[in-house]
Amino acid sequence: MPSRKPKRGRLFVVSAPSGAGKSTLCAMMLKKYPELRYSVSYTTRAPRGTEKDGADYFFVSEDKFLDMAGKNEFLEWAEVHGNYYGTSAKVIEEMLSAGTDVFLDIDPKGAMQLKKKAENGVFIFISTPSFDILRERLIKRGTDKHDSIERRLLNAREEIKYFADYDYLIINDESDEAFHDMEAIYRAEKLKTAHITEISDFMSI
Ligand code: 5GP
Q: Whose CA is nearest to atom 21 of ligand 1?
């Protein structure tokens, strides 16, 4: 079957309150669509549980992070839950210019910076069905201390206000539906003619 040649890779920018299941959904997408890449962010927060440097995040000191920010090495960056998080501009540009689609898991402040910059971005917000369900999930996850959970919940109330600035809203009730919704968005966006230069093995005849 002829393939559609994309002009450039696309940025899929995913935000959600902490605990809404964003990482799980992104991991499921990467498994099913191996051509997709996940952007590994830089952060000043300490690794949690089994997290690995270079895979989950690049864990750096505050000095190093601020030095990189000062040199404009981040496509976007923000302070979230008292730590800094940022996306490498160089890595993203390399992937997009190679035609690779990239999933970014970033907070709404960072996403809004990208919305102004990324002509090609697709913005997806994920929420739990209710605030109480979010609280339950954070407690059940067991990776955060009590004060960190409270901070994440407070933040969630602010983050949810941004949902209408995104292109899509997925409500994650932990059924298969949320994954199907995410797949549907990805697949539909890939079919948009605006992002396709040619149909290989057809236009060259
Ligand atoms: P966590 O500490 O739970 O891994 O992430 C906390 C928050 O930081 C999440 O909302 C996550 O989306 C966000 N985050 C992770 N990487 C980045 C990044 O590179 N930039 C921004 N702006 N937020 C990020």
A: 106
Is residue 108 very low, low, confident or very high in pLDDT (cuts 50, 70, 90)? very high
pTM of this structure: 0.91
Q: Is 18 in the pocket of ligand 1 (CB under 6 A)?
A: yes
Q: Which domains are present in the chain? A: 4-39+100-203 (3.40.50.300)
Please write the tens of the pLDDT for every residue from 193-205.
877 777 777 766 5
Cα 113 to chain centroid, rounded: 13
Q: How far is the CA of 16 from the centre of ligand 1 (A)?
A: 9
What residue has token string 């799980």? 24
Average pLDDT over residues 52-79: 97
Instruction: Say how far apart CA 96 and CA 125 lie, in whole Å.
Output: 22
Measured CA to CA, the distance from residue 122 to residue 36 in angstroms comes to 14
Percent composition of the chain: helix, strand, coil (DSSP 3-state, to 5): 45, 25, 35
Distance 205 CA to ligand 1 centre (A): 47
Instruction: Confirm if 121 and 111 have CB atoms less than 8 A apart.
Output: no
DSSP characters for 14-52? EE--TTSSHHHHHHHHHHH-TT-EEPPEEESSPP-TT--
